[in-house]
Amino acid sequence: MTISWPELVTAAADESTAVLLKGADQNWSRRATELDWNCRETLSHIALGVVGYAGLLIAQPTDRYITLFSSIDSHAPVPAALEGIRIAGRLLSTTVRDAAPEVRAWHPYGHSDGPGFAAMGVLEMVVHSRDIALTLGIDWTPSDELCAPVVERLFPDAPTGFGAAETLLWCTGRIALPGLERRVGWRWDGTVR
Q1: 154-167 b/e (C-beta count within 10 Å ≥ 16 → b)
Q2: Nearest 5°: phi and psi at 180?
Q3: Which end is more exposed in the chain, N or C (fewer Cβ atoms within 10 Å of the end residue's Cβ)?
Q4: Which residues are CB-contacts of 157 (< 8 A; sequence separation ≥ 6)?
Q5: 90-to-20, 51, 158 alpha-carbon distances in Å
Q6: What is the CA 64 to chain-centroid distance, rounded?
Q7: What is the pLDDT of residues 102-116, one digit of tens each?
Q8: Which residues pair with 151 in a beta bridge?
Q9: Is the predicted pLDDT of residue 1 greater than 70, yes or no?
Q10: Could you tell me the pTM of the whole model?
């Protein structure tokens, strides 16, 4: 089966925002799990990352981040703020769809291509949306369908024998797995393989 990375990015944006909308009436000023940001700041971090990945694919720098930064309006109501994640997801999805296979851009975790930046965007959306959801009292784990391609693309040393979502959560230091302690100091490998 061929992965449609643009569709995966859009699906991640849709699933993440649908889950977070359930907690729109909660206190978003609380720290998001063990992150350094509160829930609103984490939402802005997601938008920054996802739009930034699109920008990297467009600008194709070889040694730096791009100079465009995006954020979510800190005064917008949560449902409107979640629109920013859907917009960011569509921007990345379209950019990945339009990027030629030979396009490469710098990232500190490895120069990458369209599928690599798509995988990074999906990771940002689902992992950080889960961080926010748990803080808001929403018990949610992203789907294996969203997580499996991300694990395969960004974590070549990932353990086998577990579900894709739990493997991604282990790879990103969110959970322990049977026989595997919780990771500390993790990072993905975005290089093209």
Answers
A1: bbeebeeebebbbb
A2: -130, 115
A3: N
A4: none
A5: 18, 9, 28
A6: 20
A7: 999 999 999 999 999
A8: none
A9: no
A10: 0.97
